[in-house]
Amino acid sequence: MKLTKKIETEIWKIYDTWMQGYLNADVDTYNYYFDEDYHFIGSTNNEEFLNKKDTTDFFRATGDQFAGMTDLRRETKTLEVFGEHVFLTHFFDAWFKNDTDWSYYGRFRFSSVMHKTKEGWRFIYQHFSMPDSKSEEGQTIGFDKVHLENQELREAIQRRTTELEQKNRELEVETALERIRAQAVAMKESTDLLDIVVTMRNEFIKLGHEAHYFWHMMWLPETYEKAMTSGDGSKIGFVMKLPRHIHGDIPLLAKWEKSKKPTVVYAMNVDEALDYVNKMITLGDFQNIDPQAPTEEDIRHIGGLTFIMARTTHGEIGYSLPGIVKNPPKEDLDILVQFASAFDLAHRRFLDLQKAEKQARAVQIELALEKVRSRTMAMQHSDELQEASFLLDEQVRALGIKTWGCAFNIYGEKQSTEWFGNEAGVLPTYTVPREGIFKEYYQKGKKGKSLFIKEFSGNDCVAHYEYMSTLPVVGDVLKNLKKTNKGFPTYQIDHVVYFKYGYLLFITKEHVPEAHDIFKRFAKVFEQTYTRFLDLQKAEAQAREAQIEAALERVRAQSNAMHKSEDLANVVTTVYEELRLLNSKILRCGIGIINEKLKNVNTWITSDLSSGTSIELSGNETLSGHPLLDSIFDYWMKQKNLSYVLEGKDLIEYYKTVIKTDFQKHFAKE
Question: Residue 200 — φ and ψ, nearest 5°?
Answer without folding.
Answer: -60, -45
